[in-house]
Amino acid sequence: MLIGYMRVSSDSDRQSTDLQRDALISAGIDPRHLFEDHASGAKDERVGLSQALEFVRAGDVLVVWKLDRLDRLGRSLSHLLSIVTSLKDKRVAFRSLTENLDTTTPSGEFLFQVFGALAQYERALIRERVTAGLAAARKRGRIGGRPKAITGEKLDAIVVALDGGMSKAAVCRNFNVKRSTLIETLARAMTSGNAEKQ
Q: φ and ψ at 64, to 5 degrees?
């Protein structure tokens, strides 16, 4: 069975799925098997895409007008590949009309293997850049991570209050800190204190 998916940005009222709908129906898709989304940002939900991915079964073909209709706006090649990989795991083929890409053919399958290798290479480059950036920051004395929530005099006052018998719940209320933050800070302080003693 052929299943169609369409998407347009919701930024403009003038955009419609008519062009995509006509192309998909001309490709042999039953209008009852068309799913669509109107979404404008990477964070917008793609309900239509989710429904299409749930609807397809082994042996079906998910068809789009263009590759960028399947991909979420602003997302990466690796995201597109994750969708196609999930289809492949379900033994569902993928076809893009504009790019004449069809994973049921040897050339289409090969192209997606190339895309997969490129996405893997992209992830490796990102990891390499992040690792190099962290190393450079450490050399300059900067340590990554979130800034400490409780420091200096406030931490000293909390320790004194706890040593004096105040409960952690009371400390959280009086010093306006979250319980999880208090516990993490105290654990970190104890660890660094033990390290200094050694």
A: -125, 160
